[in-house]
Amino acid sequence: MKYRQLGASDLQVSEISLGSWLTYGVGVERDSAAACLDRAFEVGINFIDTANVYGRGAAESVLGEALAGRPRDSYVLATKLMGDMGGGDKGLSRAQVFKQIDASLKRLRTDYVDLYQCHRYDPDTPLEETMEALSEVVRQGKVRWLGFSEWSPQNIRDAFAIPGVERFVSSQPQYSLLWRRPEKEVIPLCAANGVSQIVWSPLAQGVLTGKYDPASPPPPGTRAASDSMGAPIRGWMRPEILQAVQRLKPLAAEAGCTLAQFALAWVLREPNVASAIVGASRPQQVDDNAAASGLVVDPALFARAEAIVAGLPART
């Protein structure tokens, strides 16, 4: 496993990180989640990403239980706030920052998180209020570093312009061979300001593994076949996308790796990407994804892959 510095922070994070959206505490049993986490540590993954809204606290609780007993300095733990937790608890107000960090710490069974991220931008709260509250929880020692997810370039610039507050060190956008939107503005803006990308859905919800045949229904046990986890992938399950992905398989074979590893290596070719977040429901998936770290692929193969998917219409 290779490691990269997370923006202007002092954190060294594994190039492949383990996420918990749609899985731990929701679609994957606790024993399976713990087995995946154990395997992640065995292969050198040190970066775990979650959010308060995943299962409305369930994912954090599962992780807190699974991480109990491990030395706290042996892993980098990230969570988020913003989403609807019920009872009117949502957003990035000062009150919510203070309430949600304490609730997350309790569920995660820890005194601090290494990275606290704004899950989305909150247009209903003044940005100054959010940044001052986030800065306060950093100064209280409950949070080490700050990040954001899916903020617009203007949101990011506005945050950079506020004086006297703690700085963001990470951005968490969707980014993959099939979704390159951050390249235009977000990545250059962040790279110039000490902010790294931690990308979600680098495998386009699993479509870039190549396991979905456009002529056949989704295999049993896959995310696309799941009632509880299948909704987000449906936008990627169009025949023209699945057919293009099948055309990528020979390129991965030429590179001497699986298509999933090829797609993850493509994401990691970008220097501003610190880590690619993957999900896993069984340890073998952790092994397969972790093997993408440090993979050397001929840039000409990446260029051919980009050409194959370039003509696809925008995802609906």
Describe this structure in words.
This protein is α/β, with parallel strands linked by helices and 316 residues long. It has one domain: NADP-dependent oxidoreductase domain (TIM Barrel). It contains ten helices and ten strands. It has helices at 30-42, 58-67, 94-108, 127-139, 153-160, 186-191, 239-255, 259-268, 283-290, 299-310; strands at 3-5, 12-14, 16-19, 47-49, 76-81, 113-118, 143-148, 168-171, 196-199, 273-278. Strands 3-4-5-6-7-8-9-10 form an eight-stranded parallel barrel, surrounded by four helices. Strands 1-2 form a two-stranded antiparallel ribbon. The radius of gyration is 19 Å and the shape is globular.
List the topology elements.
Elements: E1 3-5, E2 12-14, E3 16-19, H1 30-42, E4 47-49, H2 58-67, E5 76-81, H3 94-108, E6 113-118, H4 127-139, E7 143-148, H5 153-160, E8 168-171, H6 186-191, E9 196-199, H7 239-255, H8 259-268, E10 273-278, H9 283-290, H10 299-310
Parallel strand pairs: 3-4, 3-10, 4-5, 5-6, 6-7, 7-8, 8-9, 9-10
Antiparallel strand pairs: 1-2
Helix pairs in contact: 1-2, 1-9, 2-3, 3-4, 7-8, 7-10
